[in-house]
Amino acid sequence: MTCCNVDVGKILKEYSEEKGNLMEILHKIQNSSKENYICDDCMKKISDYTKLPLNKLYGVTSFYTMFSNKKRGKYVIRMCESCPCHVLGAEAVINSFVDELGIKVGETTKDGKFTLEHCACLGLCAVAPAVMINEDVHGNLKPEMVKDIIAKYE
Amino acid sequence: MKFYRSHIILGMDTPSLLAGAKGVRDTLEKQLKEKNIVNEIRIVETGSLGYNGVSMIIYPEGIIYTGIKPEDIKELVEEHLIKGRPVKRLMAIESSQKDICAGKQEKLLDGQVRIVLKNAGSIDPENIIEYIAKDGYMALGKVLNENTPKEVIDIVKNSELKGRGGAAFPTGKKWEFTYNTESSQKYVICNADEGEPGTFKDRLIMEGDPHAVIEAMAICAYAIGANKGYIYVRGEYKLSIDRIKKAIKDAEEHNFLGENIFDSDFSFNIEVCLGGGAYVCGEETALIESIEGKRGEPRLKPPYPPVCGLFGKPTIVNNVETLANIPQIILNGSDWFKKLGVKGSAGTKVFTILGDINEKGLIEVPMGISLKEVFENIAKGTRSGKKVKFAHIGGSSGNIVPFNNFDIKLDLNTLASSDLTHGSGVILFVSEDIHINDYLKSVAKFFKHESCGKCTPCREGTFRIYQFMEKLNKKEGKKSDISKMKDLCKVMKNASFCGLGQAAVNPFLDAMTHFEKEMMEGVKEGKK
Amino acid sequence: MKNINITIDGKEYQVPENYTILEACKQAGIEIPVLCYHPDLRPEGSCRLCVVEIEGMRTFQPSCAYPVNEGMKVKTNTKEVRDARKMALELILSRHPQDCLVCERNNSCELQKLAAEFNMTDIYFSNELPAFKTEDESGVIVREHQKCINCGRCVRACQEVQSVNALEFFNRGYEKLVLPTGNKKLHETTCTYCGQCITVCPTGALHERDETDMVWNWIEDPNIHVVVQTAPAIRVSIGEEMGMEPGYLSTEKLVGSLRKLGFDKVFDTDFAADLTIIEEGHELLHRLKNNGTLPMITSCSPGWIKFMETFYSDLIPNVSSCKSPQQMFGALAKTYYVEKAQIDASKVKVVSIMPCTAKKYECNRPEMKDSGYQDVDVVLTTRELAKMIKIAGINFAEIKGEKYDAPLGISTGAAAIFGASGGVMEAALRTVYEVVTNTELENIDLKMVRGMEGVKEATVAVGNLDVKVAITNGLSNARKILDKIRAGEADYHFIEIMCCPGGCIGGGGQPRPTSPDKRKARMDAIYCEDCNMELRKSHKNPAIDTLYKEFLKEPLGEKSHHLLHTKYTKRDSNV
Questions:
Q1: Which of A78, B124, B282, B294 is the most buried (most CB within 10 A)?
Q2: Which residues numbered 46-65 in B keep a CB inside 8 Å of some CB on A?
């Protein structure tokens, strides 16, 4: 069993066993993981605590794009490809990330630093095209800006 | 209370921060200190002001500056704040002193009236005192002291307010259903899962005026007899989540939430629930499933949520924008609200205007404004100088309106094209250099990615539409692909499980009507 | 129930107010195509094959889920409705393999049938198949996922009927698919192998592992002595699988067919069922007398046993230590029978014909080797046996009836009713009553424990003691009683738990498609068989008498303990 070394017990204790907070628990545990994912061991502990059968828990995590049960990079780059970004050149920006990192969308760089993901509208249309890197926002992007942005992340 | 001779309202929303708002603020603070006027002038950080770049409004003059850079600050401070001479070159538009409605709203950009965005951009959203100073929580106090729940519902019903997030269902009527349903437990849910591409009005309301949402939820809860509320916010909206959480905490401390609010028998608590990146959760039953910790797939209706919703209890799901109208309706009355807008579409509507235009951003206008007026007077034409080809209104699942039809009026009847998305209020202007097939491929990709997969027409249909568009875009299509796609779209519209699949086909059907010839350019020569 | 008025295709009808549109149409003689709908399951309304137009509604509604209401006007046969249904089917077929001729479900596939009914002569869309390898590591249930059409019937059966939670939807949109928990293999999950997912699957995506080839090889091998046993529920379902009406009772045709197939001995699990009653009855009496753990729970159903080991292992002391009849039979076939017939046990193969897929798992449990060999070598389902009969060219309708071989083919009516929910209880009570009171039971038909309800309760006076019993079928119903026991709120003495709806007649190895009506017909046939029997109480079975005299000596004795009783293993529920 690979474990992401998140202190699940401590996080779970912050939440009442009342229904209605699973989504927040999943976010919190995933955000505490250095590899931006929820490992199988954590899934079991969440299942135990919330009394939600494990099969359904996997059903939930696989449904929502923000969650992952596979290791991801330290930084997850979410690239918006919705129309408002698309008409202002998102495709070229996305290609620039792909070229710069040498990985395809959905993959993680060998050093475990970056994962590239497509995502739906981020609500940053006023600064389209835009990407989110973990919780940081980058907008008004042009392909030539990508190199500098990547360099900012250690 | 300390007196300041000037207030500087500085937009600190996400796009402003990107444009360097932090640097502007730091320089401004430094300058005020240098000039020794720190005690005279107060900086208020707020949400979006509705302009591009770093923007600020200086009161009491109400002058708006946009596109400010740190190097402009010295001049601004010396000229405006010390000498009292506005810096013309940085001014957005001369703000009008003319009040247009109820003596309260200010006219900002041309044709705008602010109800929903009344406070967004003029108060510090993290300071509950400022909200209170702007009549905040007065509406809640008023209903708790003066009105029975039934009266509150009547006020909302008479206002003719309709849902701003989806089906344009009369809000008061919805509340009445839940009011009439006997249950020891009821819920109020604020739908802040704003996922329609191009829309960010709910984000701005939450970032700029979170207490308005909380107050409205409390009023709704009082009216229908609920004691628990949820705000379902997109997981990606970090700043909204933080601001809403802070606002809930502050409201609890001031007893606007919690037990015995305003010393009444009414108790109400709110929890924040985070989305996980699923557009379909904007559909109210899918959202309810998600709060319950399930896959966000829509439920069979009937029963409808007002009768049987969250955890099987009567539940009201209202959009952020719908709720933000409520306190103003309570304070100003139903008639005041009805007078705004056109018949059948009371009040104002918040639109996001985007694309190849000069003035991008958020506007709140009375219902019934024409698309042409928006394009010419507010968006101020294309930025590229190219001819505008079409506007895509209402988000990705909305309608594509070719330039020739720009005379249409934007009211609920025009916009009501689908369950899920109408009224999300995006207007995306696309110029003629974008090929229709390229554009539609991007739309198709979105729906292929966001279909929940529950029903056959939407799960398989969105996938096939994307396949068709990919082929057409590579000029490898067949003529029959387009007619098959038309058949498929009709079936999806008729037979999909929820609004997502029913509405996803709108842009394709429109494009096949208005741009068929251009779509045919994707057909490989000789291919039937 | 109040009736309401509804107009369907221009004609008015009166239907009960709790009907769905689908039910109303059925009453009106209108057939509506369905795919994700199954009479045993909560309607989902997702396949959209059953959509209809309702006056005043903007979009079509699924008739399987939409309730009727007063004055409703429904259209089931407009062009738009037909177009919508056909498009939905075309979309499904375009993501489904088109090699029907070599599919397990050829000729019994619901999708294939619909394609024919819709006159689907052309599919416009390219055939897009997910890249999946057929998976059968569990040794019981085979998943041919590429044939899955996302109807979700298996998911609802697994989660809602059985509350096993081994299957769930994964991903979303066109990537949505059904997978075992966490994308593991079925045998690494909480799966009980009950096979209810198989019985509701409309296509060939889920089926049992076909083991008929192995059986054919043994039959062909002159050095192997092949013994076959048939479960109580087979005689009321094999006819159905061979094309007769549901509930066709075909005990003797079954025996005749098996003999014709070439089995060396045709025995009956019913023999072992009678034996189970003796052992289990004495175990119950022992617990009652000696302050043992109560309530005692039956152990015949291997799906239930795996479920119990997984989710209720704290109740292991409550579960009877008796092996299931199939395993008792196996252990005796390779000890008692070979001794009597003077055959080398290593040359004997025991084949079971079972209504059950979990029996395939049970016979391979490592502890089931008390004869010194694997007690039961292979289990075939009702459906697999039918395949063998068909290949052998046996005309089942015409074949002459024959009798089971002695001694392991001799049985009573008490054993026959093991196949229906409540049957084990009734059989046990018939014996316990007479053993305890030493008087004859006057009314032998204990109707209060019969029937299809998920949870049944009764109190039966046995001498001075009012014996409180409960009977459940379907595992989510079992939970209701088990949770009561856990909470200390149950004062039952004896509980019968059957894994599948209606008991073994609704087992995972039974003819498809299943429905409450079909199960009812099978159940009626079972009680008919009981009535037809000369002997109807297990303790009156002369062959059992002889078995104890010659071999076992006494119930719960040392030999019984060794061959007929077993132990259970706690399993992880969070997998």
A1: B282
A2: 52
Best B202, B274, B399 member to test A by mutation, with max A CBs in 10 Å, is B274
CB contacts, 8 Å: C181 with chain A = 53-55, 58
CATH topology (fold) of B436-520: de novo design (two linked rop proteins) (1.20.1440)
CB proximity under 8 Å: B 492-511 to A:
none
Q: Edge-to-edge strand order for the sheet containing A114-119?
A: A114-119, A75-80, A131-133, A136-138
- Say which CATH superfamily domain B128-334 falls into: NADH-ubiquinone oxidoreductase 51kDa subunit (3.40.50.11540)
> What mean pLDDT do residues C288-301 have?
97
Active-site residue list of C = 280, 283, 300, 320, 359, 362, 367, 504
ipTM comes to: 0.94
Whether A114 contacts A108, CB under 8 Å:
yes
Query: E strands, C238-387, where?
Result: 265-268, 296-297, 348-354, 378-381
Is pLDDT at B370 greater than 70 in this prediction? yes
Our CA-based measurement puts residue A60 at a distance from the nearest CA of chain C, in whole angstroms, of 8
B342: CB partners within 8 A, 6+ apart: B366, B367, B368, B409, B411
Average of per-residue pLDDT across C99-107: 95
For residues C136-157, give the mean pLDDT: 96
Which sequence spans correspond to the domains of chain A? 8-63, 75-151
Let me know if domain A75-151 sits in CATH 3.40.30.10: yes
- Predicted confidence band of residue B416 (pLDDT cuts 50, 70, 90): low
Where exactly are the structural domains of chain B? 6-90, 128-334, 345-431, 436-520
Does residue C91 sit at the B interface (CB-CB below 8 Å)? yes
Please say whether the structural domain C3-93 has been given the CATH code 3.10.20.740. Answer: yes
Average pLDDT, rounded, for chain C: 97
Q: How many Cβ pairs closer than 8 A exist between chain A and C?
A: 42
DSSP code string of A113-136: -EEEEEES--S-GGG-S-EEETTE
Question: Tens of pLDDT along B48-71?
Answer: 776 777 888 887 777 788 888 899
Q: Do A55 and C171 touch (CB under 8 A)?
A: no
Cβ of A23 within 8 Å of Cβ of B203? The answer is no
Which regions of chain C carry the CATH code 3.10.20.740?
A: 3-93
Instruction: List A residues 61-80 in contact with B (Cβ-Cβ < 8 A).
Output: 63-67, 78
Predicted confidence at residue B110, as pLDDT, reads 52
- Give dist(CA C529, CA C250) in Å, integer: 10
CATH code 3.30.70.20 for C100-208: yes
pLDDT mean over B488-493: 98
Between B420-424, C34-38, C141-145, C389-393, the lowest mean confidence (pLDDT) is in B420-424
B371 or B458: which leads in pLDDT: B458
Residues of chain A with C-beta less than 8 angstroms from the C-beta of C169: 59, 63
d(CA C345, CA C336): 10
Compute the nearest-CA separation of A4 from chain C (Å): 17
pLDDT attached to residue A3: 64
CATH topology of domain B345-431: Ubiquitin-like (UB roll) (3.10.20)
Span B419-441, average pLDDT: 81
Token pair, residue B288, equals: 């309810």
Q: Are C182 and A53 an interchain contact pair (Cβ–Cβ within 8 Å)? A: no
In the predicted structure, residue B320 carries a pLDDT above the cut 70:
yes
Residue C56's region, left for phi above 0, alpha for psi from -120 to 50, else beta, is left
CATH 1.10.230.10, domain B6-90, yes or no = no
User: Is there a contact between B236 and A132 if contact means CB atoms under 8 Å apart?
Assistant: yes
- Give residue-wise pLDDT tens across range C362-378: 999 999 999 999 999 99
CATH number for the domain formed by residue range(s) C212-564? 3.40.50.1780
Question: Which residue's entry shows tokens 């045998």?
Answer: C187
> Contact C575/A54, CB-based, under 8 Å?
yes
User: Is the pLDDT at C505 greater than 80, yes or no?
Assistant: yes
Q: Which of B411, B282, B404 is nearest to B345 (CA)?
A: B411
Instruction: Quote the radius of gyration of chain A (alpha carbons, Å).
Output: 17
User: In chain C, which residues have their Cβ closer than 8 Å to the Cβ of A60?
Assistant: none
Chain B within 8 Å of C543 (Cβ-Cβ)? Answer: no
Nearest residue on chain C to A49, judged by CA atoms? C574
Secondary structure of residue B491 in the 3-state scheme? helix
